Inverse folding.
């Protein structure tokens, strides 16, 4: 089994005057095709006024992952880092990083996506923004 | 056998090893289509709009064709209609690209009506965007005047579109047939196991070793085009093992979709037996596994994946361990085998057995009567009878799928 931290960001589009984003990181233990156990989940909201560039995205991810006390490679979808090649993205992170490859990594990202999306929906409802 | 020259244009900063691998694969494909490769031409540059490779390189190719008496030129890169036309004009021989070559192999190997239809569909889909260009290229000189050609172009394109619709409808109907066959097999207590993996990973050899039957096994790509299915029994559990067409690098998505029926066997299986060629370099294995996971991710529904790391007899044990470590996060439930020598097959069968959909155990008592006896024989057909005792009534310990257990529920007794 391998420890990984799957990360997903929801809300990278403009609403009213800003970008209401929620980043979710889930720390899981995975085998090649399944999630074996979930250790920790971190959710953090971010609000910025202009469209996030790649440096912002990296910063958002690192801030969220810093909440966790868990070893493991950060796993992301290609699109989240604007389809940058892996060797380039790796240099931007202070921790180990790679794009999704195995079935379990994809599952974990899907998991993180559900967490971030529903947290964001809840947040938007609380703020009264549609 | 036709003499052919293979050509590949590489992007200037592309990975050399990957380029070499692609070229080797193209040569194997050509071999599979019964061509003899007499020459190779490689150029590193960005694509030329008119010829794909450079102008000077095309002249060089023309000389090579003449010197080697080649009858065909096969490009690894996808060619536009204009490029095919321009190159064949210069080289004075037939020119095709990798996808046309694959289609040619598929057409030659397709045996069932369904497979033939799928090949035709793929061909037409490939042809469609080119239809207009082909007509205007052929009739370049005899353009009759205002709006003269439009009619021909449209009708040619329309014909193709109509044929595509007809084939799609027919395929849809026949797929319903195979789907009901699959449900029937499931109902009969068969679990479905599909062999998947890249071409030449050894799927057909493994298939043959497992079912001990003669399917065509050749060191050639695409020997299995129409899926072959045979039954296999492990520890009294019946399963159907299907050999499927191999994945291939850079196969366009529409082509994967066109051959869905063979891949459907993978996507609807209870267990996917992913065969990996361990004699490949570790980067290649990794890449192939990533692509396989990508294909499974979009289409499978809850099937268990078992990875058979094949051709272990070809490499030393230490190398094997090293490779195994690197790819372990991509290889679910791995087992090392050699389909050729039979090594590890017992272990693989055990693993398959363990991953089959769970059957329930129960003890039943059936009355000693004609009806009871017919029930006994029915249970022998549908499940596994572990123990049977004949007395005033018939005491049985059985293992079967849920539906069967439900049917005999009135006869169950506690332990």
């Amino acid at each position: 089994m391998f420890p990984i931290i799957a990360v997903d960001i929801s809300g990278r589009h403009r609403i009213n005057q800003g970008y209401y984003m929620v980043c979710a990181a889930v720390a899981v233990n995975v085998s090649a095709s399944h999630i074996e156990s979930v250790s920790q989940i971190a959710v953090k909201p971010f609000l910025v006024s202009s469209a996030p560039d790649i440096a912002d995205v990296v910063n958002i991810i690192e801030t969220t992952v810093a909440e966790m006390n868990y070893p493991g490679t950060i796993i992301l979808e290609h699109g989240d880092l604007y389809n940058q090649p892996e060797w380039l993205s790796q240099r931007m992170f202070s921790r180990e990083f790679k794009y999704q490859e195995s079935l379990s990594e994809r599952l974990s990202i899907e998991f993180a996506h559900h967490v971030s999306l529903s947290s964001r929906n809840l947040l938007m409802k609380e703020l009264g923004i549609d | 056998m036709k003499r052919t020259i293979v050509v590949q244009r590489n992007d200037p900063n592309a990975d050399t090893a990957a380029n070499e691998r692609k070229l080797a694969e193209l040569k194997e494909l050509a071999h599979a289509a019964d061509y003899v490769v007499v020459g190779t031409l490689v150029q590193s540059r960005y694509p030329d709009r008119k010829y794909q490779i450079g102008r000077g390189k095309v002249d060089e190719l023309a000389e090579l064709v003449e010197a080697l008496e080649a009858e065909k030129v096969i490009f690894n890169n996808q060619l536009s209609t204009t490029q095919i036309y321009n190159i064949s004009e210069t080289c004075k021989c037939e020119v095709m690209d990798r996808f046309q070559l694959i289609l040619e192999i598929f057409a030659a190997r397709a045996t069932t009506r369904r497979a033939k239809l799928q090949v035709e569909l793929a061909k037409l889909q490939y042809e469609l965007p080119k239809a207009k260009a082909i007509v205007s290229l052929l009739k370049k000189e005899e353009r009759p005047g205002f709006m003269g050609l439009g009619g021909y172009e449209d009708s040619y394109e329309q014909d193709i579109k109509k044929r595509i619709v007809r084939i799609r409808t027919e395929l849809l109907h026949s797929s319903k047939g195979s789907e009901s066959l699959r449900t029937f097999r499931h109902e009969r207590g068969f679990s479905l196991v599909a062999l998947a993996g890249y071409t030449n990973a050894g799927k057909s050899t493994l298939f043959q070793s497992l079912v001990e039957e003669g399917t065509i096994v050749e060191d050639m790509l695409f020997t299995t085009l129409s899926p072959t299915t045979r039954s296999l029994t492990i520890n009294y559990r019946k399963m159907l093992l299907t050999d499927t067409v191999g994945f291939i690098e850079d196969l366009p998505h529409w082509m994967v979709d066109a051959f869905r029926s063979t891949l459907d066997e993978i996507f609807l299986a209870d267990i996917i037996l992913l065969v990996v060629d361990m004699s490949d370099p570790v980067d290649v294995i990794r890449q192939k596994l990533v692509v396989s996971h990508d294909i499974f991710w979009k289409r499978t529904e809850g099937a268990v994946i078992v990875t058979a790391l094949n051709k272990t007899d070809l490499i030393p044990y230490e190398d094997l361990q090293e490779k195994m470590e690197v790819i372990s996060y991509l290889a679910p439930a791995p087992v090392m085998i050699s389909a050729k020598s039979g090594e590890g097959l017992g272990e693989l069968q055990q693993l398959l057995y363990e991953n089959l959909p769970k059957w329930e155990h129960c003890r039943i008592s059936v009355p000693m009567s004609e009806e009871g006896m017919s029930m006994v024989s029915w249970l022998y057909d549908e499940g596994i009878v572990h123990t049977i005792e004949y007395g005033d009534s018939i005491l049985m310990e059985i293992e079967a799928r849920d539906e069967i257990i439900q049917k005999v529920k009135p006869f169950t007794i506690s332990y």
